[in-house]
Amino acid sequence: MMEEQWIIVDELLSEIRIASNPKNKPVTINGHSKDLRCIGIGTDAAVFQYIHLPNYAFKLFADEKQDKIQLEAQVYNKLNGSPYFSTCYAAYDRYLVLSFESGITLYDCLLQGVHIPYQVIEDVEDARKYAKKQNLNPRDIHLKNILLQDGRAKVIDVSEYSKPGDDHRWEHLKKAYLAYYDIIDGKALPFWLMETVQRWYNQRNFSSIDEFMKDVLKLKFFWK
User: Fold this and answer.
1) pTM confidence score
2) Residue extents of the structural domains in the chain
3) Residues 74-100: pLDDT tens digits?
4) 93 is catalytic
5) Which residue in 39, 83, 59, 37 sits closest to 159, CA to CA?
6) Which of 86, 166, 221, 222 has fewest C-beta within 10 Å?
């Protein structure tokens, strides 16, 4: 049975359709409500906050991706009790009800020049260890999936934790932080630079993160 406080949100979400796009591009949102604020867009879903219930986030899936809702809910159920992840309160036909998590993504930290403390790295390491103990596979951990929250880390997307394989994203991010973060710490990186590095990372084959970073550091921005 749906919680009474969520019934009005369900009605508002029924007026919005989410469409997925090819080549792993972010979803397209069709429809809107003045009482819903979009706080995140991914490749399978968009996340909304109802302004009158700010402690919750509603992850609304594309019609053709709704088979993933129960799988993700099962992941959250296994993670229940960990402070490093969001809480899932309910799973319905089109969306998940999650805890709203304040903070700024590590991606936006780099855009704004906000310092990322080493504690964040340690927290994500602990989060991954916890997930593995629950027989999950913590993958797809990147700059947009980690929040800086009062100096600590909060991992906000667990949608791929039931998939096999290692995408090495976290290992690369951790190594880049340890070896190169001091070069940019405190600098606000331009959007074009962030998008260029992300595109290179997704499109290029490289033997090691050090090889990749050598090419990145050739960009003139770093040596102004």
Assistant:
1) 0.90
2) 15-99, 104-219
3) 999 999 879 999 999 999 999 999 999
4) no
5) 59
6) 166
